[in-house]
């Protein structure tokens, strides 16, 4: 009922998952990440414990193929499950159970994997992977969204559209960005809108947040305020209005 992409940006060691489905709030259960160490997507007849356990074990240094083999061996429902993952060394592993609903399958390449079930056909996975690999010049978040949009153009979930999500972790176990469209007629377009709104202020704030290497983060607000003001000025110069639904005080 879902297709997703799991990727590592080798240049920055950021990990990301993007997912779309004709199912409510797909972002609530599919993506599982740890900062700078791993990314996992668990889907089909979803077992959230697969994602939680895989992310924990991969973050501790276990190899993706070993973790996957253990999960499959222990779960009597594995034939209905689908999962793919990238570990701390950049190694990928994927499983599409034999009872997942057609079309179903996965493809793995360097630092990226794409998997899906209940899709319009194999072209969904192929188009998603090709678009990701063919847009290495884009920022990581935009590259993931572009890949998912290509998969949707190839047919996506054969039942239609409802929800989508994008989550990226940099160095930390909290996300750098975590966007969800839980119930929307065009969820991937909604992710684009949310990402654009995030660029107005949120992504600048994210740059200041504490990390394990800098527990206090940035405490001087002046550079943050200047960056936000510069972003607003740039948008005005380009004639672009805010796409935010935020309200002003009454």
Keywords:
six-stranded antiparallel beta sheet; 250 residues; four-stranded antiparallel beta sheet; Glutamine Phosphoribosylpyrophosphate, subunit 1, domain 1; alpha+beta
Q: How does this model look, in words?
A:
The model has no long low-confidence stretch (mean pLDDT 96). Helix content is 34%, strand content 24%. Helix 1 packs antiparallel against helix 2 (64-74) and helix 3 packs antiparallel against helix 4. The protein folds into two domains: 2-185, Aminohydrolase, N-terminal nucleophile (Ntn) domain (Glutamine Phosphoribosylpyrophosphate, subunit 1, domain 1, 4-Layer Sandwich), CATH 3.60.20; 205-237. The strands form two sheets. Strands 7-8-1-2-9-10 form a six-stranded antiparallel beta sheet, with helices on one face. The protein has seven helices and ten strands. It is of the alpha+beta class and 250 residues long. It has helices spanning 48-59, 64-74, 122-133, 140-153, 187-200, 202-206, 221-237; strands at residues 2-9, 14-21, 31-34, 38-44, 81-86, 92-96, 105-109, 112-117, 163-169, 177-181.
């Amino acid at each position: 009922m879902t297709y997703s992409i799991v990727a590592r940006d080798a240049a920055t060691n950021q990990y990301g998952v993007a997912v779309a489905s004709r199912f409510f709030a797909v972002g609530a259960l599919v993506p599982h990440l740890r900062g700078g160490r791993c990314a996992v997507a668990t889907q089909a007849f979803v077992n959230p414990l697969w994602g939680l356990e895989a992310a924990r074990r991969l973050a501790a240094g276990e190899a993706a193929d070993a973790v996957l083999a253990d999960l499959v061996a222990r779960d009597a429902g594995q034939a209905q499950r689908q999962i793919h993952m990238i570990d701390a060394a950049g190694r990928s592993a994927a499983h599409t159970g034999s009872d997942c609903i057609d079309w179903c399958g996965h493809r793995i390449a360097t630092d990226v994997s794409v998997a899906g079930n209940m899709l319009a056909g194999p072209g969904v996975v192929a188009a998603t992977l090709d678009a990701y690999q063919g847009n290495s010049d884009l920022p990581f978040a935009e590259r993931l969204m572009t890949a998912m949009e290509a998969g949707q153009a190839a047919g996506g979930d054969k039942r239609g559209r409802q929800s989508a999500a994008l989550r990226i972790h940099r160095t930390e176990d909290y996300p750098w960005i975590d966007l969800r469209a839980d119930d929307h007629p065009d969820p991937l377009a909604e992710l684009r809108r949310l990402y654009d709104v995030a660029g107005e202020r949120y992504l600048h704030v994210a740059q200041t947040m504490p990390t394990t290497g800098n527990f206090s983060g940035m405490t001087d607000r002046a550079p943050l305020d200047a960056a936000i003001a510069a972003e607003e000025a740039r948008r005005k110069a380009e004639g672009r209005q805010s796409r935010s639904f935020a309200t002003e005080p009454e």
